[in-house]
Amino acid sequence: MAIQEKNILNRLYFVAACLFIFAIVVMIKLVNIQFVEGDAYRKKAQERVFKTFDIPANRGNLYDSKGNLLATSVPKYTIRFDALTVTDKDFRKFVKPLCQSLSKEFGKPVTYYDKLIRTARANRNRYLLIRRNIGYSQYMRVKEFPLFRFGANRGGFIVEQTTVREHPIGKIAERTVGYERRDENGYYTRVGLEGAYGPFLRGKEGKRKKQKIAKNQWKPIGDANEVEPRDGFDVVSTIDVNIQDIAHHALLGQLERFEAEHGTVVVMETKTGEIKAISNLGRTRAGKYYEKLNYAVGESHEPGSTFKLMTMVAALEDKVIDSSYVIDTENGRVKFYDRIVRDSKWGGYGKISAAKAFELSSNTAFAKMINQNYKDNPRKFVDRLINMGLGETLDLSIKGEGVPKIPYPGDKDWYGTTLPWMAHGYGVAITPLQTLAFYNAIANDGEMVKPRFIKEVKTWNKTRERFDKQIINPTICSKKTAKIVQEMMVNVVKRGTADNIKSDNFLIAGKTGTCWGNYGKDKEREYISSFAGYFPAEEPIYSCIVVIHKPNKKKGYYGSEVAAPVFKTIATKIYNDIPVIDEVSYAVAESKSVGNSYEKYFRNAQKYKTIMPNVKGMPAMDVISLLENMGLKVELKGAGKVAKQSIAPGTKVKRNEIVRLELS
User: Fold this and answer.
1) Which of helix, strand or coil describes residue 205?
2) What pLDDT band is residue 193 in, cutting at 50, 70 and 90?
3) Which helix (H) or strand (E) holds 130?
4) Residue 113 in contact with residue 98, Cβ under 8 Å?
5) Of the candidates 557, 559, 530, which has an alpha carbon nearest to the alpha carbon of residue 545?
6) pLDDT, tens digit (0-9, with 9 covering 90-100), for 105-160
7) Helix, strand, coil in percent for the chain, rounding step 5
8) How far is CA 169 from the centre of its chain?
9) What is the dihedral of CA 361, 366, 369, 372, to 10 degrees?
10) pLDDT tens by residue, 250-265
11) What's the Cα-to-Cα distance from 73 to each of 62, 454, 631, rounded to whole Å?
């Protein structure tokens, strides 16, 4: 019996010891949770109820060069109601006036809102949707409605703000304006100007704490943010919406007329490299056109005869020919190994000079000219092309620039026919914008400038960063060579392949291009039509390229009939809008009567009030009348005639701008 009692006691002692050890473990765990890991567990508990959300910042505005909006962020507001936070007294007093205000604002019956709100209160709904995506002015009215005016804590008013990116000019230049999107993993997709200058436009996100109420719904705590978002900076682009509109519609009309697959147009300011217009239109299955891809920047393809300018410059620079160099085009068919180069004219052009070959765009002449002079040393020709910058990208700010291709002797795809085919634009690849940069350099007497899409970054009216002209290559060729090919391009329009776009009002310089868009015996032949050049030819202001892919062959496919007319339409409309600066020297004017001595100046000041005239040498009284007539404010220093003017002649001026004149 004693032994049995002793065994029972031992078991009790063992159980008691286990319970004691378990109690100690529990105490240790509690102490650990409370004091060691307490902060982490409290944070987890807090996160289950409270959470900090990012508040997207308003993106900065994107402007054209004249201050017109290309893209802007428009705030949109979603209104919700916490039906539990309102006291019974306030609810009974204000629910009816609130429903009446909502009915008047949004057009639904008072009874609809009365039932909606009362049901939400009965169901303890703390996140009742009242209205989505209202504008700012409407939001300002709603927040002053009965009950809502008391805010979040007393009135149950919940507002959630989002921003919507809108393009005031619609679908025009949509791909160039572009977008910047971020996925759930934080990765950005960047397209066009919006993508390229996202770091400026984006701003800095704010922070706002919200409380979890039910069904994964989060209600903002209070009316204020923990961290206010910082709006992005404004970006001023080089685009001119007027020129953009001209280019877009000129291209669209021709694409529709020739039922082409896609096309692109770029207009660039010659001296600065500023892109004034860029249109990229692709066809849908329904036959409509929209900004599908940025073909001008990203599509590298065989240029065809527009590459003959590069070929001609290389040959002239290497002094293997001059403009009078004679080539026999034979019968318009010249065989190199197992392949034949053909001219568009049956029977050929006979014996013609290099200059004439350029005007007529003779494939056989260019193939023979380059083959005869470089076949023993093809590297010399290719090195010249590369030294002129044709083998490299332009390092554009816009993403997705196409990579140019210039074959090099020794490459696996270099054949005996490569050299003569390169001469007339086959076997090489280059984007429309890279081609335009070269043509623009010739217009600049050899100076190649980088195409630019942005002028400055601003915050309000303060400039934070300015983007000025960049020179890629100060001399791609000698001025002598540039002058020779400039004359050749003028003659292309005067009496060559593009004589159909000759203008009586101003000179156009350029080159047509027509090349095959595909190869293979079983494939139906498709074409790429192009025209590149600049205007006015005497003093170039703008360069432009037009490229149209796969026009309907039954309607036409030559560059002269498909692409060149688009160039002429754009050039004519732009030229007609260019202010004329008509300067009259004081020496000539002095021979006239006092009353009429500046009649011509006054007449142009009346017509073109945006361009500063040259007033040096004019008497003060005449200058004051002239400039005040233009809407300018004049400040004089000294007496007599004008010796210096603060605004240079030809500069664009604004009304009420101050002009300081020094007299002597």
Assistant:
1) coil
2) confident
3) strand 128-134
4) yes
5) 530
6) 999 999 999 999 999 999 999 889 999 989 888 999 999 999 999 998 899 999 88
7) 40, 25, 35
8) 13
9) -160
10) 999 999 999 999 999 9
11) 10, 19, 34
Amino acid at 277: A
Q: Which two tokens stand for residue 345?
A: 């004219």
> Which residue stretches of 377-519 are H helix?
378-387, 418-423, 432-443, 479-495
How far is the C-alpha of 129 from the C-alpha of 82, rounded, in Å? 9
Please check whether residue 513 is in contact with residue 563, taking contact to mean a CB–CB distance below 8 angstroms: yes
Report the distance separating Cα 427 and Cα 433, nearest Å: 18
CA angle 587, 592, 597 (to 5 degrees): 80
Q: What is the spatial distance between Cα 404 and Cα 388, in angstroms, rounded to a whole number?
A: 13
If residue 448 lies in a helix (H) or strand (E), which one and from where to where? Answer: strand 448-449
How far apart (Å, rounded) are the C-alpha atoms in residues 256 and 290?
12
Q: What is the SS3 string spanning 8-66?
A: HHHHHHHHHHHHHHHHHHHHHHHHHHHHHCHHHHHHHHHHHHEEEEEECCCCCCEECCC
Measured distance CA(581)–CA(476) in Å, rounded? 31
Q: Which residue has the tokens 């919406």?
A: 241
Contact 614, 652 (CB under 8 A): no
Q: Which of 272, 294, 271 is nearest to 281 (CA)?
A: 294
DSSP annotation string for 62-125: EE-TTS-EEEEEEEEEEEEE-SSSS-HHHHHHHHHHHHHHHHHHH---HHHHHHHHHHHHHTT-
Structure-token pair, residue 129: 């949707």
Angle at 330 between CA 328 and CA 334, to 5 degrees: 105
Q: Provide CB contacts within 8 A for 532, sequence distance 6+.
A: 306, 309, 435, 436, 439, 510, 511, 513, 543, 544, 545, 546
The pLDDT of residue 516: 85
Q: What is the pTM of this model?
A: 0.72
Q: Which residues contact residue 256 at a Cβ distance below 8 angstroms, ignoring those fewer than 6 apart?
A: 289
Three-state secondary structure of 283-329: ECCCCCEECCCCHHHHCCECCHHHHHHHHHHHHHHCCCCCCCCEEEC
Out of 148-162, 216-230, 243-257, 422-436, pick the least confident. 216-230
Beta-carbon contacts of residue 425 (< 8 Å; ≥ 6 apart): 302, 303, 304, 305, 306, 307, 308, 311, 513, 515
Q: Pull the structure tokens for residue 388.
A: 């002129």
Name the band, by pLDDT with cuts 50, 70 and 90, for residue 604. Answer: very low
Q: Quick one: tokens of 143?
A: 């927040």
| Amino acid in position 393 | T
Q: How many residues does the chain have?
A: 664
Confidence (pLDDT) at 27: 80
Helices (H), 345-478: 354-360, 363-374, 378-387, 418-423, 432-443
Q: How far is the first Cα of the chain from the last one, in angstroms, to the nearest whole number?
A: 137
How far is Cα 450 from Cα 438, in angstroms, rounded to an integer?
10
Three-state DSSP class for residue 129: strand
Hey, is 491 helix, strand or coil?
A: helix
Other C-beta atoms within 10 Å of 408: how many?
A: 16
